[in-house]
Amino acid sequence: MYPSVKAVAPLDNYLLAVSFDNGEKGILDMKPYLDFGVFKRLQDVEAFNRVRVSFDTIEWDAGVDLAPEFVYSKSQRSAAEKVTTVTA
Fold first, then answer.
1. How far apart are CA 88 and CA 86, in angstroms?
2. Per-residue confidence (pLDDT) for residue 62, from 0 to 100
3. What tens digit of pLDDT does each residue of 13-61 get?
4. Which SUPFAM superfamilies does the record match to this protein (predicted)?
5. CB of 15 closer than 8 Å to CB of 28
6. Distances in whole angstroms, Cα of residue 48 to Cα of each of 6, 23, 55, 70, 88
7. Which of 7, 30, 43, 51 stands the most exposed, by the fewest C-beta atoms within 10 Å?
8. 56: Cβ–Cβ under 8 A, 6 or more apart, which residues?
9. 6 exposed, middle or buried (CB, 10 Å; 0-12, 13-18, 19+)?
10. pTM of the model
């Protein structure tokens, strides 16, 4: 079972700062996915920045969401220590 997303904040360069309900924090780099399918909608920085927590994961107004296990498994949790804390 993967932890739920509790908070998310957009950062520069299509990065997301994510906090999980187990107390861990991570950085999710979305750049590798922005050339595929519905993720192309997030190439617009304004659309990308409208990210929010929805239930136990994240979603965007552009009709894009991610599975919580994807968010957790792809987040670089050691990198999060270098970034400002995300609050729930």
1. 7
2. 86
3. 999 999 999 999 999 999 999 999 999 999 999 999 999 999 999 999 9
4. NE0471 N-terminal domain-like (SSF143880)
5. yes
6. 18, 25, 19, 17, 19
7. 43
8. 4, 5, 68
9. middle
10. 0.86
- The one-letter amino acid at 2: Y
Closest by CA position to 88, among listed 4, 6, 25, 20 = 6
Q: Structure tokens of 59?
A: 């979603």
Q: Please state, in angstroms and rounded to a whole number, the distance separating the CA atoms of residues 18 and 32.
A: 17
84 vs 77: CA distance, rounded Å: 13
